[in-house]
Structure formats: structure tokens, C-alpha cells
Amino acid sequence: MSLTKINATAATLTKNRTEDSIVPISGMCATCVDGCIGMCEIGKSAYRGTEAIYPQPFGIITSAGQKEYPVDLSHFNILGSCRGAYGIEADSDKAIFPKVNLEQRIGHDKGIKLRLPIVIPGLGSTAIAKNNWEGLAIGAALSGIILTVGENVCGMDSASEIKNGRIVRSPEMERRIRLFKEWQQDGYGTIVVQANVEDTRLGVQEYVIEKLGVEVAEMKWGQGAKDIGGEVKIKDLKRAQMLKDRGYVVLPDPHDKNVIAAFERRAFHEFERHSRIGMAEEEAFYARAEELRKAGAKYVFLKTGAYRPSDLARAVKWSSEAKIDLLTVDGAGGGTGMSPWRMMCEWGVPGVELWSLLYRYLDKLAKKGKHIPDIAIAGGSVLEDHIFKGLALGAPYFKLIGMARGPLAAAMVGKNIGKRIEEGSTPVYIERFGNTIEETFITAPELKQKYGADFQKIPSGALGLYTYMTRLEQGVKQLMCGARKFALEHITRDDIVSLTHEAAEISGIAYDMDADKEEAEKILNS
Given 244, 274, 304, which residue is the final one in a domain? Predict the structure, then answer.
């Protein structure tokens, strides 16, 4: 059901009284009764106001929009073949799925090497990202993928040292980068630091490049979860005041005496911290890319959200002109912050449409001989078929799939299982596999053999992420083997078909009944 028709959702902890009888246009109960205490969106808004805008409970959840779009990745299927092989000898004893090569290289010099075509986009200052960073960083490093430190980490760090409006030191940023670098394996993967308006003013990227050895800086226009700046909630008055003093938009005003009094008597429990929206300007964009390179950035990335098509065209053209190394286009409403719930569901160009436009724009520039940056697409991909379909949809330009909620879920599950095992309270569902880390995590024996005594230093959250990545690795290899594609460079747009005429019209991917039509006719008429 389209969320436009829903007046209640688990995301905002609301529900309709007459759940089986809903007015289609408004989502209200068919009968709104005097005497109801207000469990729906309207009702909760009547007594909690703006609190009802955001997914809850904040800080321990990730969230994504529920809206069903006319076309999504499920409207495509992957084609297989019974003959031939690309990237390996067409020999049944050699063309086996473990031989599929999933390594990817990106950047102007192809100097960033990855074991899997995956990037974890910006996970910033939200509590859920901070509290699970150990598992994310170490798991990503072990897996050989890209991990991005998102916005506002330095600005939100209470221990940050700021002099003359510029960041001098941030223990939290140091921790995030150190955890990845300490476990990075054979140069695979890399850590990226993203910057929004406030980060740029603080000089965050210059700081991490000069002081912390970061090689990749990412400019940020936005994300798919929302079309405004990053947001978090603050439960501590002094912290809210600190953030207000550092230049953030904090609501309500934590320095206002009446607000302080209301907070202290528990009239409300949380302050909102909001980041500013950026203002993309062409010449300023080029200038910032050069500033980052002069500061020592070896690679410069750009991440943009599901903005209107003309803004996508700007992202593609300007990235081409500025020789950006990786452009990430995020097309779905999901993330780790407190994106306004209705905004998350109702704004932006939907994923398949956005990525299809992206392919067209890239192809147009490529045919003109222009520089084409490497491309990552993000937005709801969590399993192997999503990865294959996403890469095929924009082949040969799409190089990586961005995944945030999936990896974070894996890290959280791994962490929680580890805690329960340590407490001696392994859940029944998990206990059937064992009561120890080594018995429960299927990759533990392999990692224990590889790292020896250091295996004990790998947190269970990292085991969760790494193990999830091994599942994705084998799953993608099996799909690629079936399509007879034994390296990523051989994936093409005709490796998938559209299941509906609408999907075919939007994407330019052949309708399943039209695929191979000319070749089939030649075979039949020969």
C-alpha cells in the first residue's frame, strides 16, 4: 500500500483503531470516535507535536520508507545461459562458481582495490552508527570493502578540540579511522570521510587528510533518506547547548530559559539537532575538488541523493568535468538517522527511475568522449540478486553497490549474539548452532586459523558483518556463474530482463518476451 494512504506505522509507534477499515485517501479510521486516546499519526501529533514526525525510538533503530513504487528491482529477472563463458575458458571443469572474480578497482588510477563491489555509504554521528562502529569498521576491513565516515562526527564529538572555528582534534574520528586501518588486509578497501556544510566549515576533511592519513574525501550533496540536512536527537541539555554554540541548528533553543524549565520538568525529553542544506554551485564545486586534492586527498568522491533529474544531470556533468573518482547516487528512503518519516517515504525520484536516468546521462557523455567517473548506486540493496541487478542496470558504468542498513543490521546482530553468548543466555534460535562464538559464526574457524591469537580481538559485530559479506560473495558468484560471467567487467545490461512493459519503458532493459528476439529468429530460420 502507498504510504500516502497510511495514517499509522510501526516507524512512528502509531496505529489505527480500526485497522481493517481505513479511508484510502487519508489513512484515517473509517470512524473517528470521540473517546479515542489518539494512537494514530493525527492523534499522537495532537499531544506530542513534532516528535511524531520522526521514526522512534531514536538511537537504536535504522529505518526505511514503506512506500511501494510502481517499479523496483523485483521487476527484473537475471538471465542465465547453457553455453559459453566470459572471463574464463568455456570448460565445465574450469568454469565453476568459486572461480568468479569479484574484485573491483576504482579511481582515476584504479588504485582503490576491493575484494567485493560494495561500499558502505556515510554512517555519521547517529548513536546507532557510533555504537556499532567497532563491528562495522573491523568487519569492513576484513571484507576488503569501502567504509565511509559520514557527516557531523567531529562536530558531535564532545571531546573535539576546535580552535578559530577549525577542528584540531577529534578522538571519535581518530577511533573510527584507526579501527579500520588496524585491520585493513593487504591494501584492500579504504576508508572515506564525508563532509556536509558544517564539516566543511570546520575543516574536517583537511584535518583527517593531514593528521590521520585519510586518502579519500567525499563531498556530500545529500542522500536518499531525506532532502534536508542530517539530524539527530539529544537527550542532554549541556550537550544540546554545546552543539548550538558550535553552530548547529538546535530545536527548541537550549539556551532559552523557558525551554530549559520545560525540559527540566520533563515536558519534553529530547532536543533536535539539524544540519544545514548545501547549495551546489558549479564553480564552487570545481574549486572544492581542487582544494581537497591540494590538501592531499588522493581521491575525491561525491555523494548525491534522489533529487530532481536536472540535479542528477548536474552531478554527472560536474563530476565528469572535475574528474571525480566515484559518484554515489542514493535512491531510496532509508538510513540510520531520524529522517522525517513522511519525507522518507514521499520525496525523491524512486530508485529504478533514478538509476535509469543516471545510466542515460552517463551514456550520453560517454558517447561524446567525456570522462566518466566510477559510479556507485545505493538504495535498499541488501542481498546478492540486488547487487547483480544493480550492476547490470547501469553496465558498464556502475561499479559498486552502496549498502548501509544491511551491513549495519549484520553488525548489530553479530554484536547482540556475542553479548548473549558471553552472558550465558544464548537464545534458543541461536543455541541450535552452538553456545560459543566458534560454533555459532560459520566463518570463525577460517578467521581463527588466519589470525591465530588475534582472532580473540575480533568483536562479534565484525564477525557478523564479515560472515554476511561471505554470504553475499558466494551468492553473487553463483548468479554470475549462471549468467556465464566470470568477472564483473563482463556483466552487461542484457544479463537482466524486465518483467513488465513499464519496467522496460523506464529502464530500457528488454521486456522478457523481447529478449534475444533477433538471435532466436536466426537460430530457428537457420
Answer: 274
pTM above 0.70, yes or no: yes
The b-or-e profile of 358-374 (16+ CB within 10 A means b, else e) is: bbbbbeebeeeeeebbb
pLDDT digits (tens, 9 = 90+) for 232-265: 999 999 999 999 999 999 999 999 999 999 999 9
Establish if 305 belongs to a structural domain: yes
294 is written with which cell numbers?
591540494
Q: How buried is 129 (Cβ within 10 angstroms: 0-12 exposed, 13-18 middle, 19+ buried)? A: buried
Asked if residue 292 lies in contact with residue 267, where contact means CB atoms within 8 angstroms, the answer is no
Q: Return the closest-CA partner of residue 465 out of 418, 517, 509.
A: 418
Task: Give the model's confidence band at 5: pLDDT under 50 very low, under 70 low, under 90 confident, else very high.
Answer: low
Beta bridge partners of 271: 234
Domain with 86, as residue range(s), is 62-110+211-229+279-526
pLDDT for 386-402, tens place per residue?
Answer: 999 999 999 999 999 99
Residue 194 lies in a domain: no
Contact assessment for residue 147 and residue 191, using Cβ atoms and an 8 Å cutoff: yes
For residues 301 and 327, the answer to whether their CB atoms sit within 8 Å is yes
pLDDT at 244: 96
User: Strand (E) positions, 379-518?
Assistant: 398-402, 496-498
User: Are 358 and 505 within one domain?
Assistant: yes
Tell me the one-letter amino acid at 426.
T
Work out the angle between the directed axes of helices 351-367 and 309-321 (0-180°, nearest 10).
40
The count of structural domains within the chain is: 3
Proportion of the chain above pLDDT 70, given as a percent: 98
- Taking alpha carbons only, the member of 65, 55, 63 closest to residue 350 is 65
* Residue 524 neighbours by CB under 8 Å, 6+ apart: none
- Please tell me the distance from the alpha carbon of residue 377 to that of residue 166, in angstroms, as a whole number: 32
CA count, 13 A, side-chain hemisphere, 417? 28
332 confidence band (pLDDT: 50, 70, 90): confident
Contact 393, 359 (CB under 8 A): yes
Q: Which residues contact 265 (CB under 8 A, 6 or more apart)?
A: none
On whether the CB atoms of residues 306 and 380 are closer than 8 A, the answer is no
What CATH number is attached to the domain comprising 494? 3.20.20
Predicted pLDDT of residue 314: 98
Residue 297 · residue 204 · CB < 8 Å: no
8 Å CB contact between 207 and 168: yes
Q: What is the DSSP letter of 278?
A: P
Task: Report the C-alpha gap between 229 and 172 in whole angstroms.
Answer: 21
Axis crossing angle, helix 405-423 with helix 133-143, rounded to the nearest 10: 110
Q: CA-CA distance, 192 to 203, in Å (whole number)?
A: 15
Residue 90: what are its φ and ψ, rounded to 5°? -75, 70
